[in-house]
Amino acid sequence: MAKSKTTILFEDELDADEKEISPEDKAAWEEMEKYFSESLNQFKEGQIIQGTVIEISKGIATIDVGFKSEGTVHLYEFPENGKDMSVGDKVEVFLDRMEDNDGNVVLSKEKANKIKLWDELVTKHETNEIIEGTVIAKAKGGLTVDIGLKAFLPGSQIDLRPIRNLEKLLGEVFQMRIIKMNKQRGNIVLSRRALLEEERLNSRSDTLQQLEEGNHISGVVKNITEYGVFIDLGGIDGLLHITDMSWGRVNHPSEMFSIGDKVNVMVLKFDKEKERVSLGLKQITPDPWVDVEKKYPITTRIKGKVVSITDYGIFVELEKGIEGLVHISEMSWSRHVKHPSKIVSIRDEIEALVLTLDKEKKRISLGMKQMEPNPWEAIEKKYPPGSEVNGTIRNLTDFGAFIELEDGVDGLIHISDLSWKKIKHPSEVLKKKDAIKTVVLNIDKENCRISLGVKQLQPDPWDDIAKTYSIGMEVDATVIKTTGFGPFAEFGDGLEGLIHISQLSSEKVSDPDQVVKIGDKVKAKVIKVDTNSKKIALSIKAFEENLDLKAIELEQAEVENFKENE
């Protein structure tokens, strides 16, 4: 009969002289062999077994599990590194191997704990029990959570809505449920959302009873957009629009709220069919516009802070919830304010006058320039008609030039008042930003207008023109423009004269362009000088026929008659 492994071990430990044994000793050895054989058959590798601590030394606990040899386990595998453990204590350990190469039993307390905990978690999973865990790391697609064992919490199962910044959840303790376990892979999948959905469903019925217009209700901010914030009221979400957040100006909801904030709001509207809830925050506090007429009557001087700047003016906060508009035209007596930002900046404190107030539309018009003296009040005394004044050319247009006499006071020189000579555009004689001397021609105080002139500084040359260019005088001229009723020709020192179509030739002319063209040099006679209208009439026909003075005057009468009929 083959010897058992135990028998061979015992025999190997005997000295050569002891191999001759008595029958009694042999019987005892056989009894021990039976005991250890039964012990070995009782336990299997991979089981949790109970043992007794027989020695603690140098960070290692020696444990007797009933085998021929003992096993050892490091103290760090025990709670608090085995601080409260003593010799004689009963402990549960994992039987890793019956024996190693040295014949020792291989044990593990850590594996025993994990197996025991896994079994406990399986029970909790089967009974749908709530567990608690701590977020310890960010993982791909979710979070790693410590529940005694490492488990995975997917991003979609963290909250009712996706959370973008998972880093901020590190260290947070959550209550969750186990939704999946795989023992072979050691995987555990958790869900916090399942609990939140249950809580949301349970609180929904209570919330529906409170959703009556005018009721106050508490909720938690769960999402922020440009147009408002969504608030979880308990199973139902409500929208707090940006216009219902404050009586004052709110540029973006994030100025007032953060996700997770608890807030008390009023139910403004509840659509039961669509389950849409409109909420208000400012409605909880009094409307500052209720007694606005008493606080800001017209002509009241106020101080306020600039909160917005637009192309057409600035908005000034008088108090929380009340703003007034200073239109760009009411910012300065000067007419050439290009943009309000040239005068004020955001958060500047300004003084202004209440100009108009519309309580229903919640509008207040303010004026800044009214805080300074109106330069137009004494304009007639300061710039009487006929007086000579100095100014700066501010702008040139097709019809004239604007001259700044002082801040807030501009005058216009019409193109016809720039020179006694004919000018096509003011830029021919003026340059922007140049200083200029002018004469005040007229003042319209009501419309804040001043008419100026430059040519009036010089004598009217037409007083001498009538003497210099008498009727019948021959002139050399150049055609500068043609019209249907005749061409205009320039002669002398920049003078222009009209050659009527009837004065182009002795023969009848239907089209002036068939006789002369722009740039043609012609000889003509002066047939009329009108100093009042400052016009001169010329005649090629009179020159060619060498008409005398009386003939010319007669022709002129015919021309005038023709013009009237035409």
Condensed summary:
The chain has 566 residues and is an alpha+beta fold. It has helices spanning 5-13, 23-42, 109-126, 193-210, 292-295, 379-382, 462-468, 540-545, 549-565; strands at 48-57, 60-64, 71-74, 90-97, 105-108, 131-139, 142-146, 150-154, 173-182, 187-191, 216-224, 228-232, 237-241, 262-271, 276-280, 301-309, 313-319, 322-327, 349-358, 363-367, 388-397, 400-406, 409-414, 435-444, 449-453, 474-483, 486-491, 495-499, 521-530, 535-539. The model is unreliable at 1-19 and 34-41 (pLDDT under 50).
Structural write-up:
The protein is of the alpha+beta class. The chain folds into 5 domains: 39-127, Nucleic acid-binding proteins (OB fold (Dihydrolipoamide Acetyltransferase, E2P)), CATH 2.40.50; 211-284, Nucleic acid-binding proteins (OB fold (Dihydrolipoamide Acetyltransferase, E2P), Beta Barrel), CATH 2.40.50.140; 293-371, Beta Barrel (OB fold (Dihydrolipoamide Acetyltransferase, E2P)); 379-457, Beta Barrel (OB fold (Dihydrolipoamide Acetyltransferase, E2P)), CATH 2.40.50.140; 462-565, OB fold (Dihydrolipoamide Acetyltransferase, E2P) (Beta Barrel). The chain contains 9 helices and 30 strands. The protein has a 5-stranded mixed barrel with strand order 1-2-3-5-4. A hairpin with a 2-residue loop joins β21 (388-397) and β22. The protein is elongated.
